[in-house]
Amino acid sequence: MMKRWMGILLLWALGTTLALAESSRVQWIMLEGSINPGSESFLQEALGTAQNDAFDVSVIQLNTPGGLSTSMRDMVQSIANADRPVVVWVGPSGARATSAGTFLVYASHLAAMAPGTHLGSATPVSLGEGETPSAKQTKAMEDAAALIRGLAEQRGRNADWAEKAITDGVSLTAEQALEKGVVELAAASRAQLLQTLDGQTLEVNGRSVTLHTAQAQVVERTPDWQEQFLSVITHPNVVYVLLLIGFYGLVFEFLNPGVVFSGVIGAVALVLALYGLNWLPVNWAGLLLIALGLAFMVAEAYQPSFGLLGLGGVASLATGSVLLLDIQAPGYGIDGSLIAAMTLLSLLLVVGVAWMAAKAYQRQQVSGKEGLLGDTVVALEDFEQAGSVLAQGEHWQAQSDSPVKKGQKLNVTGLDGLVLKVTTQARNK
Fold it and tell me: Which of 173, 200, 235, 328 has the fewest CB atoms inside 10 Å of its own CB, making it the most exposed?
C-alpha cells in the first residue's frame, strides 16, 4: 500500500515538474504614445531586467504615431540585442505603429497585429507636395531605408515594402501586412496572441527558443512616474513653454527686484527646460535667436524706441521658435499654433511697453526742477529781490521783481540755474 502511494506521489511530482517546464513567464510591456526619451528609458529598463526577473519572453503592446529618430534607434538596438525573445503586437484594434513604430515592428523577433490596426508612413522628414528633397532630407531617407532593410533581412520580412514605407510613405492594414510578409501573426486580443505564440520557435542571438505561452504567467509592466515625467518634460511643446516662462520670469524679477516668486518660478522653469533640451536635437541658432529676441524686448523696456527694438525682438523670437528643434518626425515638433500664441503675447507686451513710453513722453514733467514751473511756493522771509522760499518741501533761492513778505504764496514762472523766478500774483489763503 505504501509503495502504491509513493508511486502516485512520484507521478504527481513528475507531472507537476513537466507542467512547470512547459509553462513560462511573459513580460507584457505597454508602450503607447510618442517615441521619446521617456519611452526609450522605459523600454530599455524593461528589456534589461527581463533575464534577471526570469521572463521567458517580452511582448510589447505597441500603439504609437512615431517620434524622435534618436530614441527610436536606441530602442531598436535594445530589441535587436535582447537576450530573450521580444514580440511586438500592434493592438488592440484601432492602434497604429507608424513612422518610428514601424522600425520597432521590424526589429522584433516576431511581429503581430490586431485587426483594424495599421503601420507604415515611416518617412523621416515631412516633405510638402511637389517639393524637391534637400541633400539633408535625401541623406536622412537613405539612412533610414538602410536601417529598416537591414532589420527586414535579419528577421526574414518583406524588405522591399519596408523601403517603400521610407521613400514613399506607404501604409498597410493588419490583413495586408500579414499577406505581404511584414508581420507573422494576426491576433485580436492578448489571450489569442498568447495562444497563437505557443509553440513558435524563434532565433535569438544565434540560438533557437521555443515559446510556451498558452498557460504562461503574464506580468504587465507600465511606465512609472519617473518615466512618465521624463516623457512630459521632454515633449517639444512643454520644453518651449518652460523655456519662455523661465526667460520671462527672470526678466520680470530683474525689472522688479524683490518680487522673488517670479525669479524662483523662472529659475525652476529654465532649469527644467534646459534638462528637456538636453534630450532633444537643439538648433543652437534658434536658441540664440530666442535669447536675442528677449534681450531686444528688455532693451525696449529700459530704452524705449517706440516699438522698434520690441518689434525686432518679437521677429527674432518667432524665427528662433521655428528653428529651435531640429526634429524630423512629422507632428512631433513645436506646435505652430503655440508659436503663434506666444509670438502674439510677446507682441502685445511690446505694444503695451511702447504705449506707456509714448504716454510718459507726452506727459508734463511733475518732479525735479521742471516740475516746479507753475507751482506755488511759500516765502520763508521778507525780501525785495532775492530770498528763500519753500518749494516741494525743500529750500530754494528765489528772485522777485516786487517785495515779498514772509509766509506769502508765490507763483514759479521760470528757472535760472538753481534760482526760482517768482511773482507775487498768487492768492493768499
Answer: 173
Q: Is 126 helix (H, G, I), strand (E, B) or coil?
A: coil
Cβ atoms of 293 and 323 within 8 Å: the answer is no
Residue labelled with grid coordinates 520557435: 201
30 touches 220 (CB < 8 A): yes
Cα dihedral 69, 74, 75, 77 in deg (nearest 10):
120
96, 61 Cβ separation under 8 angstroms:
no
Q: Tell me the DSSP string of 197-263.
A: HTT-EEEETTEEEE---TTPEEEEE---HHHHHHHHHTSHHHHHHHHHHHHHHHHHHHHSTT--HHH
Q: How many CB atoms lie within 10 A of CB 101?
A: 28
Check residue 134 and report its DSSP letter: P
Candidates 2.60.40.3930, 1.20.200.10, 2.40.50.140, 3.40.50.360; CATH matching 370-423: 2.40.50.140
Q: DSSP states of 377-401 as a string? A: EEESS-BSSEEEEEETTEEEEEEES
- What was the pLDDT predicted at 417? 77
- Mean of per-residue pLDDT scores for the chain: 84
Say how far apart CA 275 and CA 270 lie, in whole Å: 9
* Higher-pLDDT residue of 65, 308: 65
In the structure grid, which three cell numbers stand for residue 143, read together?
539612412
Domain with CATH 3.90.226.10 in the chain: 23-125+133-223
End-to-end CA, the chain: 132
User: How far, in Å, CA of 29 to CA of 36, rounded?
Assistant: 16
This prediction's pTM:
0.71
Give me the pLDDT at residue 4, please. Answer: 55
Residue pair 189/146 in contact by the 8 Å Cβ criterion: no
- Where does the chain hold its CATH 2.40.50.140 domain(s)? 370-423
Q: Is 16 helix (H, G, I), strand (E, B) or coil?
A: helix
The whole-angstrom separation of Cα 123 and Cα 168 is: 7
Name the one residue in this structure whose C-alpha cell is 533557437.
Answer: 208
Quick check: helix, strand or coil at residue 97?
strand
What are the residue ranges of helices labelled H in 23-158? 37-48, 69-80, 100-107, 135-155
Written out in words, the top-level CATH class of the domain with range 23-125+133-223 is alpha beta
Question: Cα(264)–Cα(320) distance, rounded to whole angstroms?
Answer: 25
